[in-house]
Protein: protein-serine/threonine phosphatase
Amino acid sequence: MNGECKLDYREADITHAERMKEEANVHFSAKRYADAIDYYSKAIAMCESSSTKPHNFAAYYANRSFAHSKTEAYGYALADATKAIQLDPKYLKGYYRRATAYMSLGKFKEALKDYEVVVKALPSDKDAKGKYTECNKLVKRLAFEKAISVEDTKSVSEQIDIESMNIENDYSGPCLNDGKVTLEFMKELIKTYREQGKLHKRHAYKILLDVKKYLEKQPTLVHINIKSDEKFTVCGDIHGQYYDLLNIFELNGLPSDTNPYLFNGDFVDRGSFSVECIFTLFGFKLLFPDKFFMSRGNHESVTMNRMYGFEGEVKSKYSVEMANLFTEVYNWLPLAHCINRRVLVMHGGLFSKDNVTLKDIENIYRNRQPPEEGLMCDMLWSDPQDAPGRSPSKRGVGVQFGPDVTKTFVELNNLDYIIRSHEVKANGYEEAHDSKCITVFSAPNYCDTMGNKGAFITLEGHCLKPKFTTYTAVPHPPVKPLMYANSLVNLFC
Structure:
C-alpha cells in the first residue's frame, strides 16, 4: 500500500511538472521569456527531485535552452541543450538548440557538427538541410577568407582614395564643409536619415577616416571631467534603433559643448538602421570631440556584425570595403571612461579576477578583435549577479560578478560606483549591488519584441548622483529588425 501511495505521489509530481512545462510554453509563445524560463526551471526542479522522470524530460531542457537564447543568455542555452542531448542522444531538438547557441556565440564549426547530426537523421527535412547548408557556407567562407589573407598588407584605410569619389549632380544630401563636420551638416544629416535618405559615400568615408585618426590617439581608458554645474548624459545600447536615438535627442537635447554625452557601446546590430546610428554618432564625435564620447561594446566586433546585421547592412548600403573599414575603426574605440575619477563606465562589467586597477585598464591593448578571455573580454561581456562571488557567464563569454566583487573593485579604485549597459531591463535601467552597479539600456522595445522601456542617465558634476529618464519606443519605417542579419539568424530567431 505504501509503495502504491509513493508511486501515485511520483506520478502526481510528473503530472504537475508537465503542467508547469505547458504553462512555460504559453509564456514563451507570448514572448514572456523570463516567465517561461522560470516555469521551465520549476518543472525541471520538480522532475530532478523525483526518482522517476517523464519520458520527454529532454524536452524540458531543450525548451528552456531556446528561451535562454531569446534572452541572449547563450551560455545557459548551450548548457541546457547539452543536458538535453545527454538525457536523450536521439532527441534532435537538443542538437538544434545547441547549434543555435553555438551560432550565437560565433562558434560556427561546432554548430555545423550539430546540424550535421540532424541532417543525417532527417535527410529529407528541408528545414534541417537549409540550416546545415547555410552554416556550411559560412564555415567555408571563413576558411577561404583566412586562407587568402596575407599579413603585412595595407589596411583598408590606407587604400581608400576619397578624391576619386565624385559627388553626382543629383545628390541632395548633406555635404561636409571643406571636409569638416559642422552643426548644419549634422542637422541636415539627421533630417536626411529621418526621411530614409543616404549620405554620399565620399562623405561617409571621410567621416570614418577622420574618426579613426582621432581614436588612434585616445587612451584605452578616457578620463572625463565634468564641471560642478554641468550636466552629463550617459546612454546605453542603441542597437541600430535610429528613431529611438533621435527621440533621446528630442527629450534631452542635441549634443553640444554644453550638453555632453557618452554612448556606452552596442551602437549597431539587430536594428536595421545601424548605418544611420553610427554615422550620426561619429558625426557628433567629430563635431564635439571633447564633449561627446563613445565606448566599445561587444557588438563592435567582426563576429557579432557578421551574424546580427551590421556587416550586411553596410554592404547593402555601401560596400564590402566600408564594412572592413568599420572593423578598423571599432578596434580603436576606448574600452572605458572615468568621470571625475569617481564613476567608471564600460559596456559589460567587472572582472574574473580580483585586484584589477584603473591602471590595468589603461594598459589593455585594444586594437584587435575582442579575445575570449581576459580583461578586455570581461569589460565587453560580463554581467552582474545577485549572489556573492563569481559564476560562469550566462552568455558563455565573460563572467558574472556579485555585489562583493563590485564593492571590492570600487573601494580599491576609490570610485563611487560603476555604470554599465549590455542587458535589456524592463524599465531601461537597474540599480544593483547597493546602487554601486548601475545598468542603463537605451533601446526601447528591443528588436520590436521585448516591450521594455529605454533609459538614459544624467549626472551633475557637483554630486554625480544619477537621475534616470525613461521612455517608450517611437514608430519607425516598416523595416524589420535583423533585416540584414545572416540568414541563419533569421532561421533560428
Summary: Residues 1-7 have pLDDT under 50 and may be disordered. The chain is about 45% helix and 10% strand. The first strand starts at residue 221 and ends at 224. The CA atoms of residues 296 and 333 lie 5 Å apart.
